[in-house]
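Figure S4 source data
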Amino acid sequence: MRPWRNGQFTQLSHMAVRISATLWAQVLIAVLAVLVVSITVIAPLPLEEQMLFTAACMTVALILRRKASRLAVLAMIMMSVIASLRYMYWRLTSSLGFEHWLDMAFGYGLVLAELYALLVLLLGYLQTAWPLQRKPYPLPQDQALWPSVDVYIPTYNEPLDIIRLTAFAAQAIDWPKDKLNVYVLDDGRRDEFREFCESAGIGYIIRPDNFHAKAGNLNHALKITKGDYIAIFDADHVPTRSFLQVGMGWFLRDPKLAMLQTPHFFFSPDPFEKNLETFRSVPNEGELFYGLVQDGNDLWNATFFCGSCAIIKRGPLEEVGGIAVETVTEDAHTALKMSRLGYNTAYLALPQAAGLATESLSGHIGQRIRWARGMAQIFRTDNPLLGGGLKFGQRLCYLNAMLHFFYGLPRLVFLTAPLAYLFFGAQIFQASALLIMAYALPHILLASVTNSTIQGRFRHSFWNEVYESVLAWYIMRPVLLAMVNPKLGKFNVTAKGGVIEKGYFDWKMARPYIVVLLLNVIGIVVGLSKLGFAADSDVVATLLINLTWTLYNIIISAASVAVAAEARQVRVEPRVYANLQATLVLSNGKTVVCATHDFSQRGIGITLPDGVDVPQGEQVLVSLLHDQEECAFPALVAFSRGPTLGLSFANLSIEQQRELIRMTFSRANTWAASWGEGVPDTPLGALAEVSTIGLRGLRLLGRATANETLIHLRSLLAQLKASVRST
């Protein structure tokens, strides 16, 4: 060994001193920052100065919003945090001097809900302040260095048409064929599935039981297959050809990477989008999570596995005992286990697969109940704040994900809180109306503007309240029960691919929000009557605050009611809207250059050039073009309306079906092109949007009530007639 020289020791000593000085400087800056924030939070201000503070913060926030740079967003977050902490400090120290038991019951209930909301707000800022925005990492040119991959498609009760689409798309993934194996994991054990897999050259795996549902199904396949990596797709999630090439490079760069997740993107509307007619115009419930939260989690090495559209390294998965079976959210729990062992996770915010959303509101609620119960189970049995292996940022990201599903009770509190004063005269704030406004307004407004700036591409203002209000009543009970006994409840499968032949109003699902809506309407009537007799200015101001809050709750509750009006869905397979180059060969041999406007497995919509007419019933050959490649498919003109044709594919062979999916659903840019490209959020515009939906909800409720009343009257009349005849 070469002896160390004195100069080297001196150099290392100076380096250590510099590192030590840097650390002390960082600690000192952090301490000073905490002191400054603390003083700003607790500093008492007279009413006028507090109002000036509010005006100054809002002015600066609106100026920063126009810039929307990363530093501007961080500055907005800091102002919002200070305003919110000032409000909560004032709330806890100056507004809780309750003397009557009624004031105390309602007052402490509200402040607990506010503390929960504040904690979720702060953790949300931590998650979303600085998204990592990871890009694909290139693979080596030598394909001999690429690993082998097993593609798992678990299924239980989905129709074969859905599985066929996903399986063919999985076979079309651009990867060396000797290193790609596709398996259908059929927990329904159906002969038609086995026959399809045999004819299409796809692996077919079953097991003798259904223990542990999807997790058990995946773990059984894990014991049988041998690929270095596993790509998992739900039965209805269709991967693109580029899925593995886009995601696998990160595994070869980082030997400690255990899991890479991509977004869940849906080519059909969920019940909110379908029933409210907001598909592609308002970001759906899940877009915030996949568009922003997961990207923020990636910064903290805390990406969640979401059960589908992900790649997992076999070694780490086997090391944690396979997919977790202790909870019904086996996916997130599996990622938590791998993180505890020191493995890395990654998120690529680039849609590389697309699936079917839940069709009905009841199905959607059932899915969310399972997620909520599972997260509560993890919180209870494998709490991220406890145990080893996790870094501080990872603990907080997992904590926020689990706390999110506890919103049921706080949301119901916010929807009914002003009624405590309007109905019973309960003083839930022991402070003057002006002082409440002075502290609450900066907290509410700065949080709204800041979140709108951060989330604007993936969540519009006020829609979160609608989503939570619809689900609050239903997830509250399973979450609380899971905290008491994590073993309560069972895994429920989310049905996909159904139809709704006739629109109807789902009274059963809507009942809780109708009750909340009626209570708030009565509250408005009571409040206005009290306002008419109020003489004291403080009473008037208090009434106006509670009436405004109640009016907002009516808007949110009415919008929630509108979601329960189920719209018709007559297509088993939703169409994907896309403009693709095509040619049409007519029965007379003439070729027409045209374009598609939508497609599905069963058919395709064509837009013809001016002057071309093709009659209904004609046999044609439609060719799709992509990257100098052309594939032709026989079809029948199902309908012809001017320049628009609807073609139905005719008896496609297995190979033609495979080629059709490769040329349509499997295109690399099919889903990514529309990701995060919606209309950016503006809070006032979003409020108008939700208010319009609320008015629609009131109309729908009135119409449904009239129809139900008419049905009951007819039934009663029929009974009376029958009674008269019998006598």
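Figure S5 source data
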Amino acid sequence: MRKRLLGALALSILAFSILIAQPLAAQTPAVTLSAQLARTETELRAVDRALDGRVDADAQKALRMRALAAQQVAKDVGAALDDQITLLDARIAGLGPAAPGVTEAPDITAQRAALTQQRSALDATAKRAGLASVEAQQLVDEIEQSREQQFNEKISAQAASPLAPTFWQTLLASLPRDIKRVGLFLKQGIDQIGSARHGLPWQALLGLVLGFVVFLPVRIWARALGQKVLVEGAPGRRVRRSANALWRVIIGTLCPLLAAMIVMQGLRWSGLLPLRWAGMGDAVVLATGFSAFTAAVSGALLMRRQPSWRIAAIDDETAARVRPLTWILAGLSFGTILLSAFDTAIGASQAAQVASQTLIALLHLLLIATFLLVLGRLRAERSAKDDAANGTASAGIGIVLLVVWVLVCIASTALLLGYIAFSLFTAQVIAWAAILGATVYLMTAAVDDVATSAFTRSSRLGVTLTRALGVRGSVIDQFGVLLSAVLRLVLVCVALGLLVSPFGGSGGFAAVFGRLGLLAQGIEVGGVSISPATILRGIVVLGIGLALTRAFMGWLENRYLPITDLDGSGRNSVSLVARYVAIAVAFIWALASLGIGVERVALLLSALSVGIGFGLQAITQNFVSGLILLAERPIKIGDLVRVGNDEGDVKRISVRSTEIELADHSTLIVPNSELITKSVLNKTMAGPLGRIQIKFSVPLDTDAGQVRAMVQEAFASDAAVLDEPPPKVFIDGLTEGRIEFNCFGHVANQRAVYAARSTVLMTLLDQFRAAGIDIGTVPQRLELIAAGTDLTPHAP
């Protein structure tokens, strides 16, 4: 462990020195660059010679880092030489070629020759640098292939089944020798302690005391102090919760780790940790740190004793039942690391190592199965209740649990068949994925809380940006949401890269499934390989693409679009276009995973264009009309429109049809082509105001001024009628001895017209009845004419 840390520190110093020297590379003399390149070539030859023999995983990592560092140096040297060659070319071009028939000065000729010779030397060195970079990349690829091959061999190796007698016979046969190795390990350590220790081991005692103080009192005090500071000074409840969770993880990991390091260092200084046991001491520190991290992350996520500080949407009962399992997982991680280190330290036999791996895999699988059973029971109990707050888990959680159950069954079957390494790898990846997932959840929540709290229009930073730079508040809100999304995406990508790295899997699951894919070669049709593996891969890729599309649309509709300046219809248009584009990209990605390129998709669409033109003409017309509606937006969601004899509110606009809710709460589905090619009355396109129109007539001898005042009073008495624009009362004409009035008033929206008109009419009826004013239409007169009467009009 110490050698690894020193090696990593040396490589970090080398990389840091390269980064520092990079800006000055253009000013480095050519002789110095050539010397650096020579050392790089020597380093690459040394790496190449080291790869000729059998190299373990740790040595391969070190050789890979050396090759990468040499490649970076070669690239830097090549870049510096290219800059110098560019300067020389400019100087040579400034001198120009020798003119034929013209005798030039000897110093010009000598300078041109010297520059040309210097350029040739630099060009040769630059080509050497390029070749060295290529060789370094080849060495890195060779190391990666070797690591992948070793990983695949380790995963696919089969031993005797634990159910077979051979397994136990081999273990019992090697047991006496392993017992001797354990005794020799203990005896050599005790002998070294006896020869090195003198007097009272006060260093060890002091280390134990300090370790206990750091582990318990300091950890409790630091946790309480951090929570107190956050309560008093952190802005916003969300930021306080996230910061408290991360602080608990940091303190819960660092304090036990420092305590273990202090105790081990005290044992070393007192001579109680001999060189023979040094590896076990390092393993204790590593196991303590990892198990403490596991317990701290799970504790910060569950918050069993402080539910008000809990970030995740977990009820108290779930936190109480799951928390003991996380402690068992932390203890199992501690024991796994110590057992592996002990096998390595004593040089245990192959049978003992296989037995240890079998035990570790079995314990992991039992713990994972117990965790799944507990979650299943909790889901069953919640589903039996009618309380909406205790509803069942989401479909995504159910799918994840189902996948984990399948993996547990596969790992258990592999364990029984003798594929111990594969079973252990699968179980440890599941456990590590749970720990990593909890960590990523906490970090993404913290990143989202900090980004959206710092970059908001109401924060101090937002107010400063608005006042100093004139940035709109919505732009600041959008930047905070986008920054949160980018940072969370980076965290997820890093987590995916770390998923299998602790177990030596350079290729990860891709390497495992790559080997399994060789079992079914399939057939090839038109240059496309069709096999169960490719079909399954296409389905998986399509599922992942649609899941990412759903997640992206959820973020777009719930987080980003609500903080923009777009109205509801604009957000709907952006959401629809983004949804269809994302789905199209998901399908193209799935086809690409099957080996069907974009050019073949375009050829297929060209072949189908004739059929689309004839058979799907109406659908295509509606689709294009929908795109026009979304782009031009003559009709928006929420508009009150009249299509033919039907009038209602626009509720949804898709690329094929538009849904209109009528007054009787029924839904009218109108094809988009009808809205584009025919007349549509949009009552709210120009503005939301609605107009009330009232027409009536009174006798000719009625006081028109009095009627006008009554109408204005009726409009003013209704709160729904607006004062601006003011109501208007007009005399429309004099007909058949009556005065015809035409009155107008305005309300806030079109949907309030009918009720306001009814209220005003009722008021007018009461007022006219009280004043004795006859209101109505022109009276009709019925005359009875005797039979035989001449009805022909006569001239006067």
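The chain has 22 helices and ten strands. Confidence is low (pLDDT under 50) at residues 1-26, 386-393, 506-521.
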